Fold this protein.
Amino acid sequence: MPDRPSDRPADRPAEVLAELPAGAAAPATAPAAATGQASGTGQGVAVVTGATGTLGTALVSRLAAAGLAVLAVSRSGDAVGAGERACLAADLGSDGAVAAIRAALPPGELSIAVHAIGLPSAPGVMDVDPGLLARSVDLKAGGFLRLLRAVRDRIVPGSRLVAVGGHLGIEPTEHAPLAGVANAALANLVRQLTGPLGRLGASVHLVAPGPFESPRVEALAAAKAAGRGVAAEQVRAEMAAEYPSGRLPSAEDVAQVIALLRDPAAGVLNGSTLFADAGVRRGIF
Ligand SMILES: NC(=O)c1ccc[n+]([C@@H]2O[C@H](COP(=O)([O-])OP(=O)(O)OC[C@H]3O[C@@H](n4cnc5c(N)ncnc54)[C@H](OP(=O)(O)O)[C@@H]3O)[C@@H](O)[C@H]2O)c1
């Protein structure tokens, strides 16, 4: 269960919650119903967006295995991961997701909500559609705010709100303009939320993975290989060699790190960025 620090002003949830803007108005149509079951074992509620993605699927399985009642959210609403979980179709790029998620939440207090949606692929900075930059910020930063508003009535001391960003927000490259801009915006938003969430005794975190084993990285390697006229295996081997361990982490590795944030001691990490990159980054910050 989430911790309940008694020395914090979190025993005034209604008062402090008022600092968070109200949720979006309910959509004209009734929110879609979740499919599946998310009873959990009394450990609290988890919500994962981007649930059909590589990381999202690993997160759903890990949090369900920890006994949480998991709501898995993606646009498709496909069944993902292992264990008991409910699946919901909702688009985090739309305000309608707020009411849809809120209506589908399993009973119980919020243990952890993770925003892990991925962005569409796009050309490099010289050719990218400028409008896609705004759309990407809306999906990552706006989507995180929508998730927060959907779960805000379930936030208790010890609840964790986690945004998955990435190293490209901190180490920009001309080849990934969307992830660079959107993850930088997300990092700023997380710091803004440190106060409102912290005053509830809850906490907000940015997790910034480096490349991990995933179709996303496979596609990147294939594109780089095609550009250089070499085999994709060569590019993958070069990428792996950049890691001190000689291998990219798996999505399960990253999911495990995110699940660690449920530890009561992790409240002191409120607002901080966790670089889940297995040491591939060289920067200090
Ligand atoms: N893969 C990496 O190496 C890497 C490295 C650094 C950071 N990251 C970050 O880690 C996160 C997960 O990456 P990943 O590789 O696991 O992503 P992914 O496999 O591409 O998954 C993307 C997920 O996002 C969902 N999604 C996309 N747009 C959505 C929307 N508007 N509303 C709701 N769901 C939406 C998709 O579900 P549907 O298609 O079913 O809607 C899918 O489940 C991302 O934030 C990414 O930036 C990844």
Q: What stands out?
A: The longest strand covers residues 69-74. The helical segments are 13-17, 54-65, 96-104, 130-151, 177-198, 215-228, 232-241, 251-260.
